[in-house]
Amino acid sequence: MTPEQAADQAADQAADQAADQAAQHSRTLAVVRVLLDRAHLATPGQVPDAVQQAVAELGWSAGIYLVDYEQRLLVPAPVAGAPQRVPQAVETTLAGRCFRTVEPLRSTSGQPGIWLPLLDGVDRLGVLELTVPEGTDMDTEVFAERCELFAHLAGHLVVAKAPYGEGLTRLRHQRPRSVASELLWRLLPPLTFGCEGLLVSGLLEPAYEVAADAFDYSVLNGTAHLAVFDATGHDLPGTLLAAVALSAYRTSRRAEHGLHECARTLDEHIAAQGGAERFVTGVLGELDLATGRLRYLNAGHEPPLLMREGRVVKELTGGHRIVFGLGQGPGSGAERVSVGEEWLQPDDWVVLHTDGITEARSPDGAFFGRDGLTDHLERAASAGQPTPETVRRIVHDVLEHQDGVLQDDATLLIAQWASGKEQEMASLNPGLVAPQDLSPTRGHGPDVPRR
Predict the structure, then answer these.
(1) Which of 108, 160, 378, 424 has the highest CB neighbour count under 10 A?
(2) Which CATH fold topology does 13-164 show?
(3) Does the pLDDT value for residue 48 go beyond 90?
């Protein structure tokens, strides 16, 4: 073969590869279009059917599994005309491992397939099982791209459609909730959130009877706002007080008030709701995402912990003031409180929790304690667990410490600053998407504020 013929052959092969790639991308787009078209008028419970109908265009099949509220079981969503799938334990199955590690895992038995984390951003919703025909090449970039697209779209559709009915929400209930718990869960933000430079994850127990604990977070103009509340009482009035605390905090925060003004708003409305008999403890924090400067107030609450390089290095003991609801009037001293301050280093963790974590007692009277919490946090950091998995395991361990019966609500909220973990969780195939392409913040024209 002459050099000219070799060059022509190479050119022909390149043209064929480009044409094949274009055809594959066109087919992928057509399947995505089917999914989005089917989703327009789908009820929440029909989202799994829309996903199945879309992947069927490729000869695949799909199954959505949603994690229950205690995060112990992955519950399959029914699909019309398909065999009922079996629930998967989070701790002991391949599907559960996919959920725990937030990593795709190939099926090890039966028809070829893959388990994919079902995420909304970085919030773990469950897993997506995709099965493919025998002989499918699962090592191609096209296959990886399709898997990632279907998993991301399915996750977003689950979250977008869920508020419109009970078809998906009821799958996550393994037993009825108390009225107080139902109210509180409706007020909470998603359990996990990530943006460039921040990963936040929280959980509370008991999932079906929690009454008076709550947490919140937000990002506005480059500042992350963090809060944990513990209202007096373990009944519906306690839940109402926690709801007032959340609402008052959000109202003040959205008006871009500072920490002291937020605290005054909380005092005013909690006092009006609880009188002199009920109050709320809590921590309010503001984290500058550009510099790592953390400012905080502590209203009679457990001090936050600071983790650095995998070790709990200190309690954050500044910013103490009287509990929310009793801070009004000249004798309260609330106006004279100095705001606590800490400068974080990259990959530092700020750990907020309620006393239901540290004061949990075993049947023989032993407290879980700060030492128990510290030990669990450090072991989780050593194991390299994703932040939401760390939170899940610690809260479960607290429950097991008490033989499954909590004497108090238990809440844990962890914020990681400048760790890059949010990018690892958001990309199911890191080789396909560059980290800077996972957010609009930088590198795509003018800098976009985190708001």
Answers:
(1) 424
(2) Beta-Lactamase (3.30.450)
(3) yes
What is the per-residue pLDDT across 138-192, written as a single tens digit (0 to 9) for each? 999 999 999 999 999 999 999 999 999 999 999 999 999 999 999 999 999 999 9
Prediction pTM value: 0.91
- Asked if residue 303 has pLDDT above 90, the reply is yes
CATH code, 178-438: 3.60.40.10
Where are the chain's structural domains? 13-164, 178-438
d(CA 182, CA 264): 28
